[in-house]
Write a structure and sequence with these properties.
This is PPM-type phosphatase domain-containing protein. By secondary structure, the chain is α+β, with helices and mostly antiparallel strands. The protein folds into two domains: 65-198 and 240-308, Phosphatase 2c, domain 1; 200-235, no CATH class. The protein is 33% helix and 29% strand. It is built from seven helices and 14 strands. The strands form four sheets. It has a five-stranded antiparallel sheet with strand order 3-14-13-8-9. A five-stranded antiparallel sheet has the order 4-5-6-7-12, with helices on one face.
């Protein structure tokens, strides 16, 4: 610690931590940006709530949304006879009552059209308040409707159609409703931690060792991992969509929608760690797909990254 004193000069205290920070101006730049984002979100929300009370502002401020997408179309690297074509990717913006609603999706060639048509005809012609209330229910119905039509096609063709998709609706930068089925996934990154939408989350629970109980069999002190199960169960059925709503707050960094070609060669946290440092969502999407190709994925490789800036 350095202390400078003079007759007419106030005492100046400079901590060692301050000096170290000055020596390395780039240290913790990412953390500073995230703290700034949290402050900005809280500040804007506080202003909106105050304005609503005073009746001065009708609409809320929203978190800026950016996205990037990429599809690997090299069919020669797929498994061969079962290959039906590359996935389709949708990124569409709708303006509803001066509010912004985004529809994102990664679909196989069988599922995409049915889901998109249903959402357009049953959701995007509604008022904003209705969209907020019914987006989750409508998303699930869209998946079930598209799946039913494909199932009927299977009966007519006497064959099995492999179907999968992952999609999301982002409402005014405040809320995201995500859905997926089969081996596709929707994974959100919150403060660096990957969370698969709708999957049960596990946390460590410390149990008392038996050697503290008189007369009990002695065993070493261990920490057992216990799981808190959500209402989705261990793994969703391939025929049943998983649909969940997530709040876009200061901890929400980005959302990954990707096909099974990504997830069969890397887990959720690997994918998040691979792209978290990238500010450009297009570069992030390309990074994930190319990494899956490098790891010799044999399924459709497609990815959409949505950043909450």
């Amino acid at each position: 610690m350095v202390k400078c004193c003079g007759k007419n000069t106030p005492s100046l205290m400079v901590s060692l931590g301050r000096l170290q920070a000055l020596q390395n101006p780039f240290m913790g730049l990412k953390n500073f940006q995230r703290k700034l984002k949290r402050f900005r979100v809280k500040f804007l929300k506080g202003n909106v709530e105050s304005s609503k009370r005073k009746g001065e502002e009708k609409y809320s401020r929203m978190t800026p949304i950016s996205h990037g997408l990429h599809v690997i179309e090299d069919k020669s690297l797929r498994s061969g006879s079962g290959y039906l074509g590359s996935d389709s990717i949708v990124a569409q913006r709708e303006q509803i009552q001066d509010q912004e609603v985004w529809m994102f999706g990664v679909f196989d060639v069988q599922m995409g059209d049915g889901i998109i048509r249903y959402l357009k005809s049953h959701l995007f012609d509604k008022k904003l308040n209705e969209i907020r209330r019914k987006s989750k229910e409508t998303m699930k119905t869209a998946y079930l409707s598209a799946g039913t039509k494909l199932h009927e096609g299977e009966k007519e063709n006497q064959g099995s159609i492999k179907k999968g998709s992952a999609s999301a609706i982002v409402i005014n930068g405040e809320k995201v409703v995500a859905a997926y089925m089969a081996d596709y996934r929707a994974v959100i990154c919150r403060d660096g931690v990957a969370k698969q939408i709708g999957k049960r989350q596990c946390r460590a629970k410390r149990h008392w060792p038996l050697n503290l109980i008189a007369g009990a069999w002695r065993m070493p002190n261990v920490c057992i991992i216990g799981c808190e199960t959500s209402d989705t169960g261990n793994k969703p059925s391939t025929s049943e969509p998983v649909v969940r709503a997530e709040k876009i707050d200061s901890d929400a960094e980005f959302l990954i929608l990707a096909s099974n070609g990504i997830w069969e060669v890397m887990n959720n946290q690997e994918a998040v760690n691979l792209i978290r440092h990238m500010d450009d969502p297009q570069a992030a999407a390309e990074c994930l797909t190319k990494e899956a190709l490098t790891r010799i994925s044999r399924s459709n490789i497609s990815c959409l990254v949505i950043r909450f800036d």
